[in-house]
Amino acid sequence: MNIVQLIEKGKAVLVKNMEMSPSFDPNKPYEEKNKYFLEVNQLGFPLFQNNILVSPATIYYKEMLHVILEYENQNTKRFNKGMVYANVGIAQIANGNLDEGIHYLLMADREDADFAMNPHGLLDGVLWQQFERPHVIENLINLNNNTFTNLHFQVTEAFIQNMLRRMDLQDRLFLEATIWTIFRNLKFNTHNSNYYTRGRLLSGLKDVCLLGESLLRKYQISQGLISANSRITLGNTGNTPGLLTNTVSGLRIGYPQRGLSVSANSLLEFLDNVENILQQSSSPEICRIYCFHLVRNFTGHHFDVSSQVISSSGKEFFDLYEHILVNVLSTILYFESMSII
Length: 341
Prior knowledge:
Layout: H1 3-20, H2 35-44, H3 54-74, H4 82-94, H5 98-111, H6 126-141, H7 157-166, H8 169-191, H9 195-222, H10 243-247, H11 267-280, H12 284-299, H13 317-337
Helix pairs in contact: 1-2, 1-3, 3-4, 4-5, 6-8, 8-9, 9-12, 9-13, 11-12, 11-13, 12-13
């Protein structure tokens, strides 16, 4: 059976099942919501078993979604489309379309909002984990053996999963997609370092730092350390302590350390400040926190990935990128290990 025949069969089964099924009722057991779609899903599921067929899987499930939406538009019945959205999302991600794929996963999450279920349930299955393990978890576990990291704790899959599952679903997806995108573009940059790829790598650093700052803020609000409407940044503002001072200063790691700058008005100044942090930090913890803070401040106000600008010691941005990346990622893991996010 070719894909056209499969789609036509799926449509016929789907319409028949919708005609015979009642409207979605959130008061019924969770399992009831997918009954009308299970047979259709069984027809399409083999398309996920072979990478060559992933693109047809996208076409198949998008066609089924279109049939459901058209049926709902012409009838009074409504159906839960969580499973459909999730399968479209997984198929898109398998094709490398992260943004569209995650859009559909979050549509699935919204569709199932009536149920008091585990909000991470759609990420706990093998369909998501086939991407998560090689593109996110393995890259984070590899920090254990990176000479630039100097972690004082072991990063295991259990540690990472615990961190991810404690996050809001949207934060988790954002972090995982950002990490995946960074490491994918690192491979591209090795083969052909160009302005676009370098820009994506810079944006990835910024996004990890912004999320880290957001996680610090959410934790401190939950602990009553700051109010929800307080305008507090990472660093101190006048006499107002920043997010880092509120938590890191109590960890007995020598924070703050004099002589390390977390601001830069040009790429040259940024590179020199990065090198100063890497060389002069009193501990790995101080190094990663100051690197994180500097990257957050610089990338929030500047976009410069020139290979022509070099530091006082003769290094350009991507000579230092791995140092910066492992310190930024290690900061998130360190915050988790110290229970401050």
